[in-house]
Structures are given as structure tokens and as C-alpha cells.
Amino acid sequence: NKNLLLDAGDVTHGTTLTNLFNGETVGVLLDMLGYDAVVPGNHDFNYGKDRLIEAAKIAEMYSNLRVLAANVLDETGKQVFQPYQLYSYDGFVVGVIGASTPDTATKTHPKNIQGLSFMSDEVVYGAQALVDEVDKRSDYVIVLAHLGLDEDGSVGITSKMIAENIDGIDLIVDGHSHTVLENGMKVEDTWIVSAGEYMKYVGVVELKVEDKKVTNVYPFLVSAAEVKDPSTSELAKFVGITEVEPDAEVQAYIDAQKKELAKITEQVVAYTPVRLEGERADVRTRPTNLGTMIATAMKDSTGADVALTNGGGVRASIDVGDITRGEIITVLPFNNTVVLVEVTGQDIYDALEFGYSQLPNQNGGFPQTAGMQIVYSRFSAVGNRIKRVLINGKEVDRKATYKLATNDFMAAGGDGYTMLDRPVLMYGKGLDEVLTEYLVQHFKK
């Protein structure tokens, strides 16, 4: 077996099948599929650090899977996860180092990572010694990274920065920014590969090794469609796979989990005559009907003057037709709670300026709002984009106080909204529950 199977993070959270079982189903499947290593992404902390650390320990005890992250430290400065792992193939040794994004500090609820630090700039400027150590013990060095390639400010430390500033890395297997690199990219002497999002692709890197030296590197992607008919794909050409049959044991496990899940998710709660837009590129750049509906549900459930929630918390659209409980959980998978805080008019302006600051680029913190009318110019300088804000047709008084409904993630300063980190006046219901009640009230079939 000369294959190395890796995942670049955010693997344990995001689908209903995963979320309702707190990531357990994915852990079982990773083991069944023979994964060698994963790096924690920001969403892998969504069930809390203790559960992730426990899962890593269980994986190490009972399987070959390793959870790798060199830059996640506890309060004493000790590494929480194993920093790297060596793999030998007929004497050819591959070293794999894990690197989690420092963005996690603002991309999951603070309570999920309490006591942890992610070394931030040290990921770039302090990692040379670790790479040198692994380089001495191996013939090929891979960084398994949940860092991303965005250069628009939404991602701080990028894999490209790693490649440019650290010597000795042969390959970076990257995640976080959902970037699709069909044949990878070369930065300095380092290859970077990234396979997009949501299992639309499987990334493959073929290494040709002669006398313990890599003489050729060929990265490519295999689409989901090609897996269904691999005879004409790169799988057939380079890996020799011409047909893919479902693994009976894996399929049986998935079917059993889906059966349990169906008891919850197939319940129809409402009907929509229009598509409710929650696509990533939409909710992170503009108001959408689904984003506005969620914010309106938050406002109505708390009696707030206005509501604001982050577009990055909306994870899917809802098509025309019946709306099931499962679809709502898929749209809002983070188990967030609606909270009520008191803010000033200036806080509202500051929050909106911050939320609109990265346009036209996508931003998980883009505000989906209700109860206010916003006049803005995306072409104005950052910090001067919000021209007017009206509540009930009246200009917002910057010195007055208002009740604002948001989610507990943002009320803790999540996504960088430090101006909303205010004492909570009221803890409401779960965000998915609030949306469900709104749909039942206004869109009951």
C-alpha cells in the first residue's frame, strides 16, 4: 500500500448526518476508509475542544488515524495535538506536519477554544525549526494545512505565505478557502494542492520516486461525476481504477445512520413557493431572502429593534417545496442561540462598516439583517461605506441605545464583531428552532 490518505480539515461538521451525532459518524467513517491523517479545521472545534481532543486520543489508541496540528497550544504552551507523523514506504519516508488556521480564534464560538492559542504569525515565521526537524527524518515533507489561499483579508495566514517563507516543504495539502486547484500550483519550490469543497472533488498527487528521490510530481482532481464513471478519468490513467463499487460495510453503516436520522429530519414543517437563497457566494456578499428571513425570525422572537447575523452561519439554500426539519438543520448547523444585547447607534454603524468592509470579496461575517434599512456604497473607502441607517423610517441616533438580536457567536465577538460583545440581556432559543417557528407561523403548508 503506497497510498497516503489525508484530509485538510472541517471534516467533522457541516451536514445534518454529522451534526446531529456530534461528528461521531465521520470519525467512524474516516477509520473505515483508512485515512492516515487529518488536520483540525476551525469547524472541527464546533463541538468544543474537549470533544475534539478526546476524539484524537481515541483515534490514536484504536486506529491508524492521526490528528495533526503543530500550532495549537494549551494554556501552558504545550501542543494539544501531535505535531507530525512519519510514514515509510519501502524505506522512502514521508513526514506530514499539521497546521491549523489561526482564524479559528474568531471562526468558532470562543467557548469552544477557551484556553487554546494558535500561534498566529509563528505559523509562518516560527515553523522553520520544526520543518528542519522533520526534513532530517524524512525524504519528503508535506504540510497538511487548514490555512487557505485567500488574499483578500478574510484569511490571515495563507498556505502561499508558508511556501514563500519556510524552506524544506515539498507539498502543502490545503483547505479552508475552498479553492479549486485543478493541477495544483507551484510557489518557490513547494507544490500547493487544494480540492475545493463539499466532496465535489478528490485531490490526488502522484509521486514518482527513484532511489528515494522524487523525480516527478503530478497533482490532479477527480470530480464526483468521474468517480461514478472513472473509466475516462485520471483515475484510470494514473491509478488504474476503471470501476468504483460502494464498499458494503461502509454503505451498511451509512444506511443505518440515515435510518436513525430520518426519524428527526423528514418531518415537514412548512412550504416555500420560492427558492430561499443561502449559497456561500450570496450570503457572504449581499442580503438574501433566506438571510433576511433568519434575521427577521431572530428579531420577532426577542422583540428586538433590529437583528444581525453572520452570512457565514447560513450554510445552504432551501429549494421550492416542502421544508423539512433536516433542511433547517443543514442551513443552520452550528447550534447557535439567539441572544439580545443592548447597543448604541454608533455600535450599529460600526458593525455594518465592519461587515461591509471586505466587499466585493466574500466574507463569512457579512451581515444579514432585519429591522433596518441600510444605504451604502461598496465603492467608497473602507470605513466610509455606510451612508445611512434607518429604523422604522427614522435615522439611527448614534448616541441612542437599541435592542439588537444576534447569535451567541457574534455576541462573543465572533467573526471580529467586537463591538457586539456586550452583556447579554436575554438568551433566547436555538437559531434553528427560531427559524422553524417563524416558518410554521408564516409558511405553514
Characteristic terms for this protein:
445 residues; alpha/beta; Purple Acid Phosphatase, chain A, domain 2; 5'-nucleotidase,  domain 2; 2 domains; six-stranded mixed beta sheet; five-stranded mixed beta sheet; 16 helices; 30% helix
Gist?
α12 crosses α16 (431-443). The radius of gyration is 23 Å and the shape is globular.
What does this protein structure show overall?
This protein has 445 residues and is α/β, with parallel strands linked by helices. The protein has two domains: 6-256, Metallo-dependent phosphatases (Purple Acid Phosphatase, chain A, domain 2); 267-443, 5'-nucleotidase,  domain 2, CATH 3.90.780. It is 30% helix and 25% strand. It has 16 helices and 21 strands. A six-stranded mixed sheet has the order 4-5-6-7-9-8. It has a five-stranded mixed sheet with strand order 16-13-20-15-21. Strand 8 (185-187) and strand 9 form a beta hairpin. Helix 12 crosses helix 16. It is globular, with a radius of gyration of 23 Å. The chain starts with 5 loop residues before the first strand and ends with a helix. The mean pLDDT is 92.
